[in-house]
Amino acid sequence: xxxxFKQKTAYEILSGLVGSEMCIRDSINAEYMGTYFxxxxxxxxxxxxxxxxxxxxxxxxxxxxxxxxxxDELIASQNKDKEAIxxxxxxxxxxxxxxxxxxxxxxxxxxxxxxxxxxxxxxxxLRGTSHIYTGYPYTQKFSLLQSHDEQxxxxxxxxxxxxxxxxxxxxxxxxxxxxxxxxxxPLRSDRKISKVPFKVLDAPALQDxxxxxxxxxxxQGLLAVGLGSCVYLWxxxxxxxxxxxxxxxxxxxxxxxxxxxxxxxxxxxxxxxQIWDIKKTKPIRIIRAHESRVGSIAxxxxxxxxxxxxxxxxxxxxxxxxxxxxxLLGHKQEVCGLRWSPDxxxxxxxxxxxxxxxxxxxxxxxxxxxxxxxxxAVKAIAWSPHQHGLLVSGGGTADRCIRSxxxxxxxxxxxxxxxxxxxxxxxxxTADEIVSSHGYSQNYIFVWKHxxxxxxxxxxxxxxxxxxxxxxxxxxxxxTGAGDETLRFWKVFxxxxxxxxxSSVIAPSCKxxxxxxxxxxxxxx
Length: 525
Hints:
By secondary structure, the chain is an alpha+beta fold. The protein is built from 8 helices and 34 strands.
């Protein structure tokens, strides 16, 4: 309905629209023709307000304030719509798929821009859908990714703006007009992870035993591999050196490097542990603290911890002549997983008794945390280098789950079913990502985004269960060993210098603020 106002000034008309039933927006078309104004809206004259000053229209929209003020009205209208959608028996029916699609699209935009969370509901999935719900408390539909010709319908009045110079559709938001591409682009875009190993090495006599740990990579770039009764060292240049042979009556069951990469500990089936000086290429000590095979070893800067089939964990101070200064007795079956936390204050141990225990370095008398949610052997253990107290563990064939634990509060904070036996876990040192290797029945390697345990890549190639996993000193490459007697090298994690977040279009990142502050301090000096 067109209302004609004859001999009315623009000031009188606009000031009378304050009490209108529809909010005034930029899309209102007011066309001056002589002394007539054509206003395509319904106006309520009951509550007109008069102002003594001239009216200055605002071209910006504080949508958050506007939505907050209209929150009650919006909730009431949504509840009314829900009550209206009922079947013949009066039972409410769920919202249609189109409504859920709009809500999902709106939430995805906020998560991508504000929180940096990459939602599966991305642009390539939105393209071709009907509309995107932008959160405005109005009934108009916002069609951002389709033209009117593609919709094959009569074009409706929509709040969108076409930039002829940049050839992009813009929409009003809390920070002005944002291009569609910029708005829908997440803060972190998934990088391409090669699904083909760049190197494959034969590893004859590599044991197919779930409870062993015979592959480890040092901080100096040396890869140690236990093959049968021998230990071999491999360099990135391709040189292979035989380091040790324990004899035909014994076999290698575990290898582990010290943090500085100068010493290598070698566990044997007999229960002995040898400490080798790599520069001198000779053993400097033999530790006899166990009665059965040593399947797991973990280094601290001062303490060497070893786990055995005899159900015990031995702690050895290499500065002391004693074989061990403490024996941790918390498991009822073989200890197959050991890891020290990055701050060296907590030791995590996993056993064939389906238990995951956490020991405090200040008190080894009893475990400070006891986690019993796994239903199979716990060999795969990894500490997060990015979050203090975050521990991740994986269960065997009967469990198949990766569980995340907060060791500060002794609570489980996440769980995901992988569908197969979890053999090894490894955190990236350059990104908040984690890689897992699996056995029965898929023999895959998965790369996960740890914040939401979203799978980034699936690597395949091994024909047997992938039991062993280690990372290079630069944090980019991983090596996997399997029962098919092969070692495969994969480029999985991003370089450290490229691990930076793009600036958000809504708010600057903390890194940007720090850089700005640093530059300002330099300028002042």
